[in-house]
Design goal:
single chain; 14 strands
């Protein structure tokens, strides 16, 4: 008897075959399906192993493994299902998926946070020197959703007012001089962040500005703009802030986006129906268009990650890196930028920790606060209470010097 179980993870349906022995099934039929399931298991394991290449091969050298990292969480879940299926059958085949997952322990650790400490063991002492850092891709404060622009912006500002971070790193920041949407002035004066730096990537009509920004309640100096050279819209910045009598270099970055359009996203969401309804040429054209966008984005991000990592390595101070990497923990970008830094989410988070709120795969964690290994993380929050503010959730890390 065959039972097909389907469950949905991040809007992606994953179907798993389960075979249970019933008295009416002949031995030959059971063996046939057991063999079929084992072969499917082998295929899944091989594809799963291919995802392990993504963090270790530069997209400039060979870009094909890079997108395979996107499939890692889903293939992980399927392998877990296979493992429990074989355990239920008391079969040694359970070792197949178990061993493969164990071989990729580093990637599992980077992707899925295990809260091994108790909820109260990490409570800071009364005299602890704490810093609260927020990283937030605000999608231009919902500028292009004209009907809700003011409402979305006000909600974002109120969230900042409630959370009271000491430092805020914004990506896709927008400000318009001397208007209601003079966000630099509002955050600086109304929300009480006297120290700020706004690095512009685009200015129109001399008053409308786009870029990345950093706001702080601690004084800083030596503001630097880091150009990547392969994108006008993607940059990084750094400042040297004096925090609790110690100088720390703060980085904020927004790396290359994939720029998949609504048509591309809808095609991926309904890929099964599209395969059945579209002819071969249309199907290949859609896939080719998506593949070309992925290839370009991964190659550019690889270059950007290398340049930013070089700058981090030259820093004379302890580093704090915030930003929208547009890449998951199973990627060359993440592996390159997280060297010698600790991922604050992994210290206090649990699960996959998705920070991207829209699209067909909202489970992806692409926003990060990476900090010096000497700091102790006390809290990490992904503010996912309102999905309508931006296509990214704000993330907040509180840590001790």
């Amino acid at each position: 008897m065959i039972i097909i179980g389907t469950f949905t993870y991040s809007k992606v349906a994953i179907t798993t075959l389960f075979i249970f022995t019933v008295p009416n099934c002949s031995m030959s039929i059971r063996n046939f399906f057991k063999s079929m399931i084992f072969r499917v298991n082998i295929i899944v394991v091989i594809v799963f192993l291919c995802t392990y290449l993504a963090p270790y091969i530069s997209p400039q050298t060979w870009w094909i493994p890079a997108p395979m990292g996107l499939a890692y969480p889903f293939l992980l879940i399927i392998n877990v299902c296979f493992m429990f299926f074989w355990l239920y059958r008391r079969s040694r085949y359970a070792l197949l998926s178990l061993v493969v997952m164990a071989l990729g322990w580093i990637l599992l650790h980077n992707s899925f946070a295990f809260r091994l400490t108790s909820w109260t063991s990490n409570v800071p002492k009364a005299d602890s020197l704490l810093v609260k850092v927020m990283s937030y891709n605000v999608k231009n404060f919902d500028l292009y959703n004209w009907t809700k622009n003011s409402e979305s912006r006000d909600k974002m500002m109120e969230l900042i007012r409630q959370e009271k971070p000491d430092i805020i790193c914004f990506q896709e920041f927008y400000s318009q001089d001397d208007t209601l949407f003079d966000n630099v002035k509002y955050i600086s004066e109304q929300l009480k962040y006297p120290y700020y730096q706004f690095e512009k990537t685009l200015t129109l009509r001399k008053t409308n500005h786009w870029g990345i920004a950093l706001f702080s309640r601690y004084p800083f100096s030596n503001s630097r703009r880091i150009e990547f050279g392969n994108s006008e819209q993607n940059i990084a910045m750094s400042v040297d802030a004096v925090i609790h009598n110690d100088t720390v270099r703060l980085y904020n970055t927004h790396l290359q986006s994939t720029h998949l359009g609504n048509r591309d996203i809808k095609y991926v969401e309904n890929i099964g129906d599209n395969i059945e309804t579209k002819n071969t040429s249309e199907h290949l054209k859609s896939l080719g268009n998506i593949a070309e966008k992925l290839r370009g984005a991964y190659i550019k991000r690889g270059v950007q990650a290398n340049k930013l990592a070089t700058d981090l390595a030259r820093s004379p101070y302890k580093n704090i890196l915030c930003g929208d990497f547009n890449d998951t923990p199973v990627s060359y970008t993440y592996r390159t930028l997280s060297k010698n830094l600790q991922d604050s989410y992994l210290r206090d988070g649990i699960g996959f920790g998705g920070t991207y709120s829209l699209g067909p795969l909202p489970a992806f964690r692409i926003d990060y606060v990476l900090i010096d290994t000497s700091f102790m993380v006390h809290n990490f929050d992904i503010i996912d209470s309102d999905k309508n503010r931006s296509d990214h959730y704000p993330i907040i890390s509180t840590f001790e010097f």
